[in-house]
Amino acid sequence: MEPAAGPCQRGLCPAPGGTDPGQGCSAAGREEKAQGSWSGAAGGNWITAHPTFTEMMSLDVSDSTQVYAAFLVYLDLLEGRNWHEVQPVGVAELQLVCLHGRAKEQEGLQVMVPVPAHILISHDRLREILKKASLPPEDPDTLLSVTLAIVETDSTIVYYKMTDGFVMPDPPGDTEDVDNIQWRKKRKKLFK
Question: Who contacts 59 (Cβ-Cβ below 8 Å, separation ≥6)?
Fold first, then answer.
């Protein structure tokens, strides 16, 4: 279902000209106001009235665009990706709202670090985020890791998993199958 003003991803669109949390729209109950803004199903600013958003705003983070980005990632993880136990956590020394959650119920907690796309991040800042925002690993041989959730102004979110060092890929399941697949590809190319 497309809104009258253009495409809306996962039922949430920032208004033209910015990512002010009070200027969003929702997929349900679209109604145009005199100023041209969209209201949610409950009327008015449904985002600012959302309990998780108000909880995020009460955390010790002064940048409201980072809080808004964290809320968009929160919605994406819960509604779009069906994550479990997603909780906002404020990291005051980094001025970030991080999200802790589980992709599946039996998996360990993962850390998401929402960042608006217009924010520039240096290598030193990435290292600081990795050290201060990541959870201590249960296994001492496991590297520290966080997932950056980069949020564009159109609510597009790109996820990048970062680790403190190189992560070796898992070996292929059966090398004989891999060899057969490669052989079939070579054979196809030869007989074209």
Answer: 67, 88, 89, 90, 92, 97
Report the Cα 125 to chain-centroid distance in Å: 18
pTM: 0.64
Rounded (to 5) percent helix, strand, coil in the chain: 30, 20, 45
The CA distances from residue 138 to 56, 58, 146, 166, in Å, are: 27, 30, 15, 18
- The answer to whether the CB of 56 falls within 8 A of the CB of 71 is yes
Q: pLDDT tens across 89-110, in order?
A: 998 888 999 999 989 988 888 8
CA 25, 18, 66, 129 torsion-angle sign: positive
* Separation between Cα atoms, residue 158 and residue 114, nearest integer Å: 10
Instruction: Give me the amino acid identity at 44.
Output: G
Exposure of 102 in the CB half-sphere (CA atoms within 13 A)? 8
